[in-house]
Amino acid sequence: MNKKAVPKSPVIKDCILAFLVGGLLCAMGQAVTDMMTRAGAEIKDARLLGSLSLIALSIVLTGLNVYDNIAKRAGAGTLVPITGFANAIAAPAIEFKSEGYVLGLGAKMFTIAGPVLVYGITASVVYGLALQILSQF
Amino acid sequence: MPERKGHYTVALSSRPTILGYAAVVGKKEGEGPLARYFDAIYQDTTMGEKTWEKAESALQKEAFTRALDKAGFSPSQVNFLFAGDLLNQNIASTFGLRESHIPLLGQFGACSIMAQTLSMASIFVDSGAADLCSAVTSSHFCTAERQFRYPLEYGGQRPPTSTWTATASGSVVVGLGGNGVRVADVCIGRVVDLGITDMNNMGAAMAPAAADTLYNFLQDTGTKPSDYDLIVTGDLSAIGSSLMKDLMQRKGYTFGEEYNDCGLMLYDRQTQDVHAGGSGCGCSASVLCSYILQKMEKKEWNDVLFIATGALMSPTSSQQGESIPGIAHLVHLVTTAQ
User: Smallest Cα–Cα separation from B278: which of B304, B241, B244, B312?
Assistant: First the structure.
């Protein structure tokens, strides 16, 4: 009965928006990388600067109360790239500042991103070990 | 004297009067279809305070003070105060009302608090335990989001079933005599849980409780929905209210034009981006303490069933995978003394 009453999310619209916004963000990252290589940076450094500029942009937009309004429409388009991760750390940092810098900002900053870090790092350790062992043969 | 009618309903023979009432709301609620009925609309939802919790306390204090002023009483004349909210340990109420120096009974019933506090105030007055009681509740979008969901600036998407917690507070002053709207009966609800676990679909979780309380009241009083000018639920919103109607139909009751939901009345769902509608204690409280009571004072409606609905989960219970129990309390409002 509940299933019948629940409206469906507009999946096709969501997918198109996510594709366009996600693509745009990646293109922006690539543009920064290209600019840096043209300015004489090594490709490795240029890529790092491309990522950093996207992180900085999303943190600034989070602070200006704009990011959540974009993300509301873009969905996975802003969530999946590195911008989503930056927002997930900046948003609780702003929100929980009212409980102080230690128990508020410091402790709550990773409430959303924390699990991603824990399991991301664990997975990379497991993968690294597996690679190391397999490469012996 | 209060007297039980049937198994669940309490009839109040003196029919205590709502001598004063006030609703104060935030910016988004002030842009909705009920804007002209509210006592105050605050464009700055921080209320000039440093934290959202303090803002909600200020909102509640404002509603309480305005209702008392409109009734023409001072805080020292109020015998008992019934107040509650959604924050841990009811801090919006206790912090907002601590300077009133009125004996306080804190209430918790999630978003059903308006009906719960109004019931308690009316029973106290009808029994003779009090001459004058105040009932007040509030909710704030920003305090509810940070307690139950995500930080405000987090870029997530809300599913179509989700509701928007109202930034609003409502308060009533209950006494005897006078010309106001009267409380004829109250019906206390049971905890009902049909196993909904989705925190973004609280309307569906609360619908069975609303249907249960309304069914019990109709059975106790031998009445039917068409006997009332308005039957209004608290914050079931689009999905919950259609489920409530389905559940009532299974029990043999059908609704006509008389049924509505405060969550659907507070916002314009087409333009205000609230998805399924409004929710929170302040949703039913602000709609009751503005639009509904004003229409009743003008005698456009004379017989109203106000059923505030609450979802009784906490972030802990939801994370532990528990389902969401619902509760609903009913207040039967009339415009006549007999």
Answer: B241
